[in-house]
Amino acid sequence: MEQQTATLSGGQHTRLLLARALIRQPDLLLLDEPGNHLDLPTLLWLESFLQTWQGSFVLVSHDNTLLDAVTNASWILRDQTLHCFALPCSAARQALQEQDESAALRHKAEQKEIDRVSASARRLATWGRVYDNEDLARKAKQMEKQVARLKDEQTELSVGPPWRLVLQGDALPADRLLEMDTLPVSPAPGQPSLFTTRRGAPAQRRSRGHHGT
């Protein structure tokens, strides 16, 4: 049966492109959000496909679980700087956070030294004027140059994202597809329970029925 690619769903189109890659066997795959529009079975298939892929791939995704499962290196673009880690996504983000904490400590210590030298320069400059002492004035100028050099070499801190999105209203629970407060659902005979009620609700275990989805 023939079908136009324009009529395929997003998940079908992704599988078609990956199938073409299997046939051509490229050295490198560039994947931009390949998990979009995929149902759970197809997403699990994609994860297995990437885990067994013999070549290299660059994967851009907002799915941390997928990134952790299939990658062994991460690039994080922040503040116009590319941070590279030989780690999966979650471990790389943790490593970047630890770098930020170390940078903050260095920045604080460097600022303390800058403040100390600046205070000494101001004091010497004042004494040079009061006592008309050229040596003190010259030393003050030298220390001011030292302060400028220390500021230029000071550890930079991340400025963070240029904007922050704030959504109004109640949060929508993304892991809850359907909520029924008073409708009991009994497990099918001999079938395991798939989920339980939320915390605070009656502790009745619920399961997929014979014809449930």
UniProtKB/TrEMBL annotation:
Q: Which keywords label this protein? A: ATP-binding, Nucleotide-binding, Repeat
What does the record give under GO molecular function?
ATP binding; ATP hydrolysis activity
Regions that span the bilayer: none
The region called Disordered is annotated at 183-213
Q: ABC transporter domain location, by residue?
A: 3-34
Q: What protein does this entry describe?
A: Putative transporter ATP-binding component
Which organism is this entry from?
Klebsiella pneumoniae
| Taxonomic lineage from the root | Bacteria, Pseudomonadati, Pseudomonadota, Gammaproteobacteria, Enterobacterales
Q: Which gene encodes it?
A: yjjK_1
